[in-house]
Design goal:
The protein has helices at 2-21, 120-129, 240-252, 261-268, 286-301; strands at 27-29, 34-39, 44-50, 56-64, 67-73, 83-90, 96-103, 109-115, 131-134, 140-143, 147-148, 151-152, 154-158, 161-167, 173-178, 182-191, 198-210. It has 304 residues and is of the alpha+beta class. The termini are far apart.
């Protein structure tokens, strides 16, 4: 019996070790910075790179299956002592997202990293932008997967920044700002003042209003929050008020009945909103709950 117990214990240790090794030799991102992960001789996992590609940013120690403790952090994104959980989250398109979620002792998300790919920043931008819009003359603009009204657009990167620009087929670069009703598009000019140069916004080109329903399943101003994993860098674009609406829109899609007068009035205008009258029947997916927690954490530290 003792021998069997020792064998089972050894298998358990091997399982924990194998699970822990899954995070090393991978690239991780928050949507802007990218970190490589290596295991050290003393058994910790070091995340090197980030926004400047300069040195160690994060160090974790395994404390169980898919659980880690932050033992060192050079910047105050996670905070020493946070617990990190490795998760596999399925999104609304049945795609698997491998993520690391750092929470403090109050269960507040302090950092979220997703396994990185080369196109993650571009995909974030297009997720935000995709939708059907109209201008004040009623003309329709359809942004859909790197295209505007069927013509290809290109996400334009700026040095050291999560760019909000796209280049049209004719070479025109427009700057995007997300508003309470949709987006504002600004003209840009190239600025050579920095060693690398960058685009800066100039005059307003047009303001567009977003339709509140794109398809039967893509509803609201921020439909991707129920379909895709939101990364921290994507939330930098939004004000505290916008983040509050974004977070509560996830609940609204499930028929949540709001007590706040402003939220009640806001969602009453949405063609898709059907309040259930019984909030106990509202159930979020794992993806949606993770997005709610992340948005709330960003909302609490965002400026008006």
């Amino acid at each position: 019996m003792k021998k069997i117990s020792l064998i089972l214990f050894a298998i358990l240790l091997q399982t924990v070790a194998a699970s822990a090794q899954d995070i090393k030799n991978r690239s991780w991102t928050d949507g802007l910075g990218t970190w490589g992960c290596d295991k050290t001789d003393n058994g910790t996992y070091q995340f090197i790179g980030g926004y400047t590609d300069a040195g160690l940013d994060w160090e974790l120690r395994s404390i169980g299956t898919d659980k880690y403790k932050v033992v060192d952090a050079e910047f105050n994104l996670s905070g020493n002592g946070c617990t990190v959980t490795k998760m596999k989250v399925i999104d609304g398109y049945d795609a698997e997202n491998l993520v690391l979620v750092a929470r403090n002792s109050k269960n507040v998300i302090k950092m979220l990293l997703r396994e990185s790919s080369l196109d993650v920043t571009e995909n974030l931008f297009y997720d935000m932008l995709d939708g059907i819009y109209t201008d004040n003359q009623g003309k329709q603009y359809n942004f859909a997967r790197a295209a505007l009204n069927g013509e290809e657009i290109e996400h334009v990167h700026c040095e050291g920044d999560m760019s909000q620009c796209f280049r049209q087929k004719d070479g025109t670069v427009l700057w995007v700002e997300f508003t309470d009703k949709g987006i504002d598009l600004y003209n840009t000019e190239w600025d050579d003042d920095s060693p690398w140069g960058y685009y800066k916004k100039t005059t307003l080109n047009k303001s567009l209003i977003k339709k509140d329903q794109i398809t039967e399943i893509l509803t609201g101003q921020y439909p991707y929050t129920s379909m895709k994993l939101v990364l921290p860098a994507a939330l930098f674009w939004f004000s505290k008020a916008q983040l509050r609406v974004m977070r509560n829109e996830i609940y609204a899609r499930h028929g949540y009945t709001f007590a706040s007068a402003d939220l009640k009035a806001h969602f009453a205008k949405m063609s898709w909103y059907k309040p259930l009258g019984d909030n106990s029947k509202v159930h979020l997916s794992e993806l949606e709950q993770l997005n709610v927690d992340l948005i709330k954490a960003e909302e609490d530290k965002a400026e008006e």
